[in-house]
Each structure stands twice: as C-alpha cells, then as structure tokens.
Amino acid sequence: MDLERQAKYFAHLIESKDLQTLKQEVESMNGADVAELLESFDERDTLLIFRMMPKDLSIDVFAYMTPYQRRLLITSMTDEELQSILNDLYFDDMIDLLEEMPASFVNKVLAQTPLKERKLINEFLMYPEDSAGSIMTTEYVDLKPEWTVGQALEYIKQIGMTKETVYTCYVKNKYQKLLGFVSLRQLVTEDPKAKIEDIMVDDVISVETLDDQEEVADKFNKYGYLALPVVDQEHRLIGIITVDDIMDVMEEETTEDFHRMAAIEPSKKDYMEETVWSLAKNRLPWLLILMISATLTSGIINRYNWIIQDFIILTSFIPMLSDTGGNTGSQSSTVVIRALATGDIKISDIWKVVFKEGKVGLIAGTALGLVNFIRLYFLVKEGFLISLLVSLTILCVVELSKVMGAFLPIVVKKLGFDPALMASSFISTVIDSCALIIYFGLANLILY
C-alpha cells in the first residue's frame, strides 16, 4: 500500500476510533515510512499515533522526522516523554535536535541532564555549524591494542547495542591516540588468541574536528567507508562520522548549490517552515543585483542607437542572441560546477577545461550559425549582410559563452567562494551584455 492510501486508511481508523488496528498497522511499518506518513497528519493525530508506538520504533521514527515535525511534536509532549526520547536517541541525533531548537528548549534539556553529559553536549554545540565536529558521534567501539580478539568480541557483545555502529572498531592507546582500526568481519574470522595490535590496520584515514563537512563528504566518496574517525590536532580520537550523517550533509550541500544556481540565498529551514517574508528576503538581494546589472544591457543599446536607427531590423534578433548566449553559458557552468563538486575536475585543470569548452563552443557555434544563416537568407529572404551579421554573432557569442561558463566558476572556487554563484542567472546576465557588444561591434564593421 502506498503512503497516500496508508494515510487515508490511518485517518479512517482514527475517525472510527479503531485504535487497536491502528497500533498493529503502525508496528508493522518501517520507522522512515512512519515518519513520512506522519507528515500527512495534524499535531493532535501525530501525537496520538506516536504514543501508540513501541519505544524502539518511536525513537527510530523521531530520528527520521524533519525539524518541522519534531518541533510540532515536542510542543505537545510532556517533559517526561521528551526526556525519555532524548535519553534513548543516539548522541549525534540528540545534538542535531538541540541545534534545531530555541535556546529556552536547550536550557531546559541541559537542566535535566547529568553533569558529565551536559559538559559533552556543550562541547559539541560549540563546534562550528559546518564542521566535522558538529556531526560526529561519540558512540563508537574502541579497543585496546593489547587485547586479544576473544576479549574484543566479548567487549563488543556487552556494549554493542548502545553504539551507533560496530562494523568498524577503532584502536587507541591509553592517551586516546588513534592507532588503527579493525573491521568486525576480521574479528570474527581471526584466531581468538590473536592480539588486536597484530591484526589492526594502522593506515587510518581520518578527519579533524574543524574540517569542513564538504571535505568530509569528499573523503567518504573517495574511500567508500561506512564511518570515518574524527581526531583533534594531537590525533586523539574524539568521535566518528557515520555514512548516514554524511548523506544528510550531501543532501544539504546539493540543496544549497541548487539555491545558489537559482540566485536564492540558501536556508537551513525546510520550505514549509519558512515564512513568506523569509522566502522573499532570501530571494530579493540577488534579484536586485541581477536587475541592476541588467541595466548594462540598456546602456549598451543606447550607445548604439545610431546603428539601430539605420537598421531597425537588428532589434528583432536581440532576444534570440541573448537567449542563445545564456543557454550555452548555463550548459558549461552547470557541467563545470557539478564536476568541481564531485572532484572530477580541480582548480589546476582550469586551462584544460577552458580549452575543451572552447572547442565545444567552436563546433556548436558554427553549427548554430550555419543553420541560422540558411534560415534567414534562404527562408526568411533577409539580406545577405544582415544574415551574415547575425550568424557570425551567434558563432562568437556561443564561443564566448562556453569559455566564460567554464572559466568563471573555477576562478570563483579559487577565490574561496561557492562556484554555484556563477550559475545560470549570473552567467546569463553577463553574457547578455557581452552579446550586445559583439553584435553591434560586428554591425559597425559589416554594415558600414
């Protein structure tokens, strides 16, 4: 049964007060599906369904909920219910929740938290928002190098259920220095008397607490690990980052790129949480910048009014030239921005990329120019010089657009900014002005 039909069925059960069947249905579902299903219900019904779940399922569902859902649910919960959930959440999920909540809520939670855990929470909340430290968890399995495999397996049996992952176990000495790691597969297939220090992998890929989350995501992509250890500047093991958390980061980074490519200031909130005013505030600055920069276009047209007065037909081709330039520039910038994000190209590859896109522009511009000349001269019966002028302009504009679409994002990345800033909206505005300068410059040469 799909989620839409399931939601209608649940609504029917609630309306008919068949709560026993509702409870059985909820218990048979996956936590992620329940969280998505609850988006269809109001605050009262969400709380009703949530209270029917077994504790393990409710913790799982709460971890999958959106920040907006969590806020609605928390406002309806008693302090005892909330504390019970917080106590059973994985540490990184609890930190994520506290980061989403207002200060008054955080203070209330900290007041009911044991001193040792309170200090740890405060320490995590102090990490910069986009750092590795802000998304790590302390719930990992750590082993001592002098232990035997048998001792390690016995230890994992005792504490494994409280840890986020047991598939990779980290080895550290008495000074908390990270020495290496051992996989669970290796532990269960080794001789129980073998020493951990003899079988561990000491070539450890790690990240530091202040590393940017994008760098962490790149390492996960590159090495394909399920978890990465997080160390401080003295290489002491502080925590780990699991693949499910880094997937959330990748989604956030991709969303940010999409927003910037559409000339929108990124927001950490879900769309449904945003007010009309905050949405407008995120969009207005770039719209103003693009509008003001677009006034260059009218300035260029005014400068060449003397050509337009003699050849009024030229104005009818301006939209086509602008659109063609913007479209071709957007193609190149989109491809290059994505390749930069995935690590497919590096800043040092700038001239290779520009040269390659230049050749693409030459081929595409020649083809578009030729087709346009045939259309104007033979089908529309436009004059030879006008047809030649428009076709040559298309060739030049396409070539320039391809080169700029490749060059500008890499330069912006080199300067330390997000290359997504050089996406379609900005590229189109810049190329519009360049296209008009080329157009009227060629008109001056060809028609006079």
UniProtKB/TrEMBL annotation:
One of its GO terms (molecular function) is magnesium ion transmembrane transporter activity. The chain crosses the membrane at residues 360-378, 384-408, 420-442. It is found in: Cell membrane; Membrane. One of its GO terms (cellular component) is plasma membrane. Pfam families: CBS (PF00571), MgtE (PF01769), MgtE_N (PF03448). PROSITE patterns: CBS (PS51371). Residues 200-256 form the CBS domain. SMART domains: CBS (SM00116), MgtE_N (SM00924). InterPro entries: CBS_dom, CBS_dom_sf, Mg_transptr_MgtE_intracell_dom, MgtE_N_sf, MgtE_transporter, SLC41_membr_dom, SLC41_membr_dom_sf. Its main location: membrane. Keywords: CBS domain, Cell membrane, Magnesium, Membrane, Metal-binding, Transmembrane, Transmembrane helix, Transport. It is a multi-pass membrane protein. Acts as a magnesium transporter. Belongs to the SLC41A transporter family. NCBIfam families: mgtE. Homodimer. This is Magnesium transporter MgtE. It comes from Urinicoccus massiliensis.
